[in-house]
Amino acid sequence: MTTKTTSPAAVAPRTASDDLRQPAADAPSTAVEKAEQPVPLRPPAERGKTSISDSVVEKIAGMAAREVPGVHALGGSLARTLGAVRDRVPGSRPNVTRGVKVEVGERQTAVDLDLVVEYGVPIGDVAVDVRENVIEAVERMTSLEVVEVNIAVIDVRLPDDEDDENEARVQ
Fold first, then answer.
1. Threshold 0.85, pTM exceeds
2. 54-157: which CATH number, 3.30.70.1350, 3.40.50.1240, 3.20.20.70, 3.30.460.10?
3. Between vectors from CA 12 to CA 9 and to CA 15, what angle results, nearest 5°?
C-alpha cells in the first residue's frame, strides 16, 4: 500500500476568491446562519397608522388664527352670539373651532376660516399673517401638508361696536 504525501509547497495557496467559493471548514452552514440572525424589524414609523380627526385640525387652526394681531374673532355674528351665551355657562370652555372648517385626508388638509378683523388694520396683511400662522401650526403639530387656507373676512369690528362676546343680550 502506497501513500502519497504532499509537501506544503506542492499545495496551491488559497486566495480570497477561494474563500468566497467555499465556506471555511469551521464556518457554520448557511441554514444555521439564517436561523440564528434576528428578523429585522420595520422602522417605528411603518408600524401602524395615525389618523387625525377634523376637530383636532380645527382647534389648531382656530387657535393659530386667533393669535394674529388684528383678528377680532372667528365666525359669523349669529355663531358668535350663540357661542358667547354658551361660553358663560359655568365649566364650559370657549369654542375655538367657531368659524373654522377643515377637510382632512391621509396626508393633506385644507382649511376655511371666517374672520372678523379690527377696524383700521390692513386686511390683506392680516390675511397673509393668519395664513402663515395657521399653516405653520397645523403642519408642525400634525405633519399634514396644508394645501390651502381660504380666508373670508366677514365683518369688521368698529371701535364703537358693542362687543357681543362681553355683553349678554338677556340677563
1. no
2. 3.30.70.1350
3. 130
